[in-house]
Design a protein that fits this description.
Helices cover 30% and strands 16% of the residues. It contains ten helices and twelve strands. The longest helix is centred in the middle third of the chain and has 24 residues, at 154-177. The structure holds S-adenosylmethionine and iron/sulfur cluster (SF4). Residues 32, 34-36, 39, 41, 74-76, 111, 134, 372 line the site of iron/sulfur cluster. The site of S-adenosylmethionine (SAM) has 21 residues, from strand 3, strand 5 and helix 10.
Amino acid sequence: MAVAANHSSPPAPRDQRGRPLGVLRLSLTARCNLACPYCLPDGVEPPGLLTLSQRLEVITAVVELGATSLRLTGGEPMLHAGLEKLIAAVQPLRATHANGPGLREIALTSNGTLLSAERARALRSAGLDRITLSLDGTTGESVALMAGLGGADREQKERSGAALLAKVLTAIEHARAAGFDPDRGALKLNAVIQRGANDDQLLPLAALARERGLELRLIEFMDVGNRNGWRPEAVLSAAEMVERIGARWPLEPLGRSAHGTASRWLYRDRDSASSGAHLAVVASVSAPFCGDCNRLRITADGVAYSCLFATPDGGIDLRPWLGPNAPVEGLRKAITGLWQRRADRWSEERQEAWNRGIPPATHAAPAHAEMAYLGG
Ligand code: SAM
Ligand code: SF4
């Protein structure tokens, strides 16, 4: 069932700022087996999780409205038992020719803790194109701190952190062995950097990624949700990250691709085709990219949001339009309406307030929906 551009395909909607819909970030669960303090998931699932067939309905509708990329996230998406089944089930939505409608990539963001060799192979054979694994440190201490690992004392925490680090490093190799080739952008590493917490890990993380031939994506600590203790002083700007790493390994700017979140850099001592030649930074706080944001987010219980910084009541519940008795047009109309009403530019507004001398922490910020709910 490829998505065909035929007379029955609805016109691709544009939002109030002329932005098309391009990416669907679908959260499969609000639960997580870690408790990173910068994210702090609930630990409990919201009631009314979507079923596989409801998720397929949603994905199909969003793809018909122009999305070409599907990112599966959470919470920890690998906790979802139906992950491989869902990936296999969306394969018919793939584009059948270049520039034609349909999915061009299916990606997963995971903390890597559950990525065994077997599951990596299962994900690959189900049709997953790309995996991004998250790792915020290279020592037991830093990993434990950033993953919110508990322990009776410092030594115990360090041991738990070291065990988690080893698990993620093994997961990287499982993914590589299963065919997720970093040289083709199919395997990357995410790291959130928080000033005063793990900014001493910048160079070690870059070294680790270079050694393992991976692109490292450094993410500024964002003010998503309401309980991660965000303060502007804890943000290490992407510019400073690049400066610090560039002082050790000179970098050449490659820019940010249209609709992308990351600005990419090339290590001057590496050939651009070689593995681990690139570094990326996601400057959503210091240099917002709302202007061409094309991402729609849908939670595990079927609420659609058009911005990562949306208020909890800023989404629309899609469940009334799902199921065998609901007319498919209703679902498409609901998503189209949300997208056409969309005028979000939260990060830019935060930045503008900041420039006017209003610190972001006091900028009239409405309560935000939580990151583990929205899926990052
Ligand atoms: N559990 C998976 C993981 O950690 O990769 C997927 C979900 S997680 C919400 C997706 C991404 O969002 C992760 O790379 C995580 O580091 C990032 N993230 C979570 N909270 C963040 C925050 N406050 N600021 C910046 N990035 C954050
Ligand atoms: Fe879990 Fe990912 Fe949030 Fe960490 S960032 S608590 S791994 S959902």
